[in-house]
Amino acid sequence: MATVDDVRRQFRNPPPEGRPMMRWWWFGPSIARDEIDRELTAMAAAGLGGAEVAFVYPMGPVTAPFGSPELLELVGHAARRARSLGLRFDVTLGSGWSYGGPHVGIEYAARQLHWDRREIGAAAYDVPIVTAWPGDEFVAAFVGDGSLGAPSSYVEVPVRNGVIEVPAGGQPREVLIATSQVTGQNVKRAAAGAEGHTLDHYSAAAALEHIRSVAEPLLQAATPKLLGSVFCDSLEVYKGDWTPGIFEEFAKRRGYDLRPRLYELFADTGEWRQLRIDFGRTLSELYEDNFLKVFQQWAAGHGVPFRIQSYGEPPATMSSFRFADIFEGEGWGWTRIPETRWASSAAAIYGRSVVSAEVWTWVHSPSFRATPLDLQGEAHEHFLSGVNQLIGHGWPYSPTNGPGLGWIFYAAGALDDRNPWWPVATDLFASLHRLSWLLQQGTPVRPVKIYIPASDAYADTGADEPNNLYRVVRRLIPESIPRTVREAGLDYDLIDDDAIAVVDPADVPLIVVPEGTTTPPKTRRWLDAVVASGGQVVTDPTGYLPAAPITPPPGVGVVHRRLDDGDFYFVANTGPESRTLTFDRPMENWSTSDEPTLALTLRPYESAVLSPTTGTATTAPTEQVVGPVQGNWSVAFDHNIRPVTLPHRWEDDPELATYSGSATYEVELQLEHTDGKLFLDFGPGEPVAPDSEPYLPSNSYRALIIPPVGVAAEIYLNETPCGTLWAPPYRVDITQAAHSGANALRVVVHNTAANALSADQHLLEATATVTKEFGRRFDLQHVEHAADYLNSGLLAVPTIIRTS
């Protein structure tokens, strides 16, 4: 905790904590020392806080196969170089995702329970047990009277000498045969040398084998004292719902035998719903005990934090996070329940002050389409969802001397110094750093809790979402519940059956339990205690929400954090239209050092940090439009100077349609008076429809605006740097550089590398080559759309604004 004065003072120049990091993809691996040094130096120069190394599929000839001494030596070199540059260095404990590889034999591989249903007549049957694939294991067989899925109950069939002996019956019957099978899933996006089965996340022996074969060599290569954390990416162990020894574990944890009722996992008979709840809960506990705890305790033994994205398959609960050190989410959507909220709720409940998120996954697809405004807009969505440490997705390692644009990751922005807009990256990352650091101060104020219907999720997982507790929960909680809370200017935490053990019911003024939710007896007693303490338990928050300190207009999100002696608020406009907030008491705007105010207008995708003050609100300065910047504009591409008329869009010129780079616009600016404050304003930009790029997947973020400067600019007046432009408001202060009479205005505009990508055949050729050699491990994302909807250049005539 800290005081308001402490936080306000440090906000403009915060300590290094909270700087955005980048996931650093090492393709192949095909890595060289000199390029490692160059890219880490570029990260540091841009104001990034560090890199998380991820080992993925080849993009060229492999020089250091995964796990080889050559690769481990390069990992150590990168860790030492990062430390010398003041960067944090993290390592993913495996290649691709989920954990696995050639060391994972059948005994350690992920398994699923497979069911074979057959209708038979009244005669007896002897069915030999046949294993179709190596590792298949017979589990049990059952028979029930009736057909067409009609039996109301089943009994186990005896097995002798490898034969299932189905006795004779008096009517048509149905036989169910359960087999444990290796899922067959291999590591996704694996590097060369890392191919193999995904491991069984319910098996401590499998976890320890992965530590011995992969994690320990990587950690020792990097040197534990040089590591910021070791990392586990997404849990995507598809259909993995079985493990050897589960009958014993189930009986120990649930107090009754699973085997005679196993058929209830498949057939809706008997007390099937409760059994599936108990089975799902057992899988969650086995994941916690035999994977999470094993890796966290191993990492702790080396003094290194264990960071994980703990959601997906296996069925991690929200509270499963508590067995890790750093909680991480992904996904944006501040009025919804993204994975980010799963992590930030756990962090708030279990006392973690820092919660990270994988940010910019699939951002404005394809790679190189993302603008600084896209990155800022999506980052704000994560901040509004409780995140305060960004892990950018990401930075592709790419040899400097490679052909074309080089290497990219298939499902992310290519967020490195190949982007023409990189000259403004320092300002972008500095802005995000300030906000990340700020949101790590104090504690979150989230007066609403939303109960996670885990029991119903365990019971309702189906073929489309097997064992993915998070996804089923998100479906069971109506979207209107989080949206109502957030649009009211309030915030919430998710809470589950484990979390109630550490949350005092007296500290819960309002909890929303979705209608029809099943609650275990212990949870019902806790909910009763909430009511006894003066809180409310409702099925819909409408009409029950307390008054918010700030009531936002549509599209504006609010984060409230409490310090020792006061509060501050992060507010962000998440849409393409300007929005105005009004306050019932004066607010200081830390983002602009404005005087106390009772109103604030946020331009599209703009944010601010507010704090209540006892000062007297002042009147906003009066603005006067002096007029547009007239004169004979010129533009220079690589010293080729020519006259130009604004607006000027590069894509309208066939010779520039595939140009990615910079251009310098110049004009003589005449100023009669320089009293007051002078601003150069390029306008608000033009909103676009959400469906203007219909090929984009729903998780591909883009700012819905065509900027007046496409896509970023540096402004110089009389050779004095006045600022950079890459997000609304597209306005810079030119007061100190201006003088009466003739002024030399220079606007250096940078676009994206998407124009060049649209003409780059190298990526397609490289993909075809590595696919032929290593098999299909990825598909490039939407590269055929690289040239769609591009707007580069100086797209508006700037205006001079005077304030007084």
TrEMBL record:
Instruction: Kindly give the InterPro entries that the UniProt entry links to this protein.
Output: Class_I_gatase-like, Galactose-bd-like_sf, Glyco_hydro_b, Ulvan_degrading_GH
Q: Which domain of life is it from?
A: Bacteria
PANTHER family under this entry? Answer: DNA-BINDING PROTEIN (PUTATIVE SECRETED PROTEIN)-RELATED, SECRETED PROTEIN
Q: This protein is called what?
A: Alpha-L-rhamnosidase-like protein
